[in-house]
Structure formats: C-alpha cells, structure tokens
Design goal:
The chain is an alpha+beta fold and 166 residues long. Helix content is 31%, strand content 20%.
Length: 166
C-alpha cells in the first residue's frame, strides 16, 4: 500500500510515541483534528497500524522479572504451505511473543517469555520440540536488555547537557 506524505508522517510520529494526543499529532502534521482522525481510521482499517504497544521494563516491577528466550528452530517445510503452517502452530502458544522466518542456519526465530528458565525449558521440551515439523532447536536466554524496539533501557539520570565554558 502506498502511503501519502501526510500518512507516512503520522505513522513515523506514532512509531516513536503512540500515546501522543490527537491534537498534538494533528499540529505536528499540519492537519486538522478531523483530517488526522480520518487518516488514523484508514491506517487502522487497512492494518498499516496493527496495534498500539507499550514497552515495559519488567526488571523494575517486583515479582515480574521473568525470563525471555530466543529460540532458533530448524523445521521441515510442508509441501504447498512452506513454513506458514508450522509457524502458525508455534505462534498460537500463549508463551510465544514473536515468530520470524529467518535466513541462515535456522528457519524460524521464536521469542518466548516465562516466569523461570525451567518454565521455558518445559515449553521447549514438551511443546515446541514435539511438533512434527521441528527438527532441532537452540535456546538463547536474554540476560539484559539494553535497547528494545528503539527504546534504550537504563540510561540513568546522567546530565547529558553540553558543557558551555566562557
């Protein structure tokens, strides 16, 4: 789908801050509130805007630290549907946050979240590895997030102003 210049401008603004007030978004795009609402409705209906998301630093919430794992999965594609059928079976598990078709040594990259490493291990051994098309898996646990979806974590309260000397 080809976006107009204003539609593209709105998408880029929302990608950086989905909570921006409608009036502010309209001003930034030099549009009326009504024009902005119409564009947003069109972008949502055509699934250009799929969802508005919030990024949470769960390490700062007591009792919700959990673990995130990235699992490389080698699969046997099925005739006529390729990787799509097995990818759909995988993304239907509630633990699964993302599934990507990859180039390279592995076919799919699966991101899951669990309360503990043993919960993730149980998912891999009892659910993922038992699927007919899955040949092998390699699990990587995320130890620390530095940046996620363009958001930098733990920047601290450092003073980032430029020092001006006379």
């Amino acid at each position: 789908m080809k976006l107009t210049e204003k539609e593209l401008e709105i998408v880029e603004i929302l990608e950086k801050n989905a909570r921006i007030p409608l009036e502010t978004l309209a001003k930034m795009a030099s549009l009326t509130v009504e024009e902005t609402e119409d564009i947003l409705k069109k972008l949502e209906e055509t699934k250009v805007i799929v969802q508005y998301a919030t990024i949470i630093d769960w390490r700062k919430v007591d009792g919700h630290e959990g673990v995130t794992a990235m699992i490389d999965v080698k699969v046997t594609p099925k005739r006529g549907v390729g990787f799509d059928e097995v990818a759909e079976r995988i993304y239907r598990f509630p633990e699964v946050k993302s599934v990507y078709l990859m180039s390279g040594a592995y076919d799919l990259s699966v991101v899951i979240e669990g309360r503990s490493m043993s919960e993730v291990a149980h998912f891999v051994s009892e659910k993922l590895s038992t699927l007919d098309s899955v040949i092998s898996t390699t699990t990587h646990f995320i130890m620390k997030k530095y940046k996620h979806d363009g958001t930098v974590f733990d920047q601290g309260d450092q003073d980032r102003r430029i020092v001006v000397a006379p």
